[in-house]
Structure formats: structure tokens, C-alpha cells
Amino acid sequence: MPNSHRFFRNTECRYFPCHKTDRPEEFNCLFCFCPLYFLDDCGGQGVLLDSGIKDCSGCMVPHAPDGYDLVMSRLRGEFDAIKRESARRTQRETEEKGEE
Description:
The protein is mostly helical.
């Protein structure tokens, strides 16, 4: 797969590939640090350690050939949920001010 805005393979990185894979030619380095890491239910195979750190070394979700689409879809959903909650909060605050 050629490098593009959706896929990037950095074979010169000293950590490449940073996850065990039988298909290094399909390994996507675009999301070197997973943007879904902050989600409790990220959809990947992360394991929460006793230290509170999520160990994602067994997860290939963002590194798969379709990882870009999966990550972007999930981020859009999360951002939409944040916008909806913000709008509800603003509406409640407006209604509460009107009652005063």
C-alpha cells in the first residue's frame, strides 16, 4: 500500500513494526500514538494494567489497512457526542436562567 494521507509505513523507524505482525507490508504507522487511547472502550485490545496505564501492545486496530477509517469514524462519533452534550448543557442553563 503506498504512503498517503490514510496510510503511512515508516520502515526506517527503529521500532518498526512496534506491534507483532505477520504482515509488515500492511502495517500503518499513521497513528503512531493511537488517538483512541483516551477512550475507556476504544474498540481495540488494550489491557488496563494495575498502574492505570493501558497496554496496547497487542492491539492492531489503528495499524490495520482500514485503521484510518475505523479511527476517524470513531473520533467523529465521540466528537458528535461531545457536541450534543454541550448543546444539552447550554439549553439547560438557558432554561434555568429564564426561570429566575
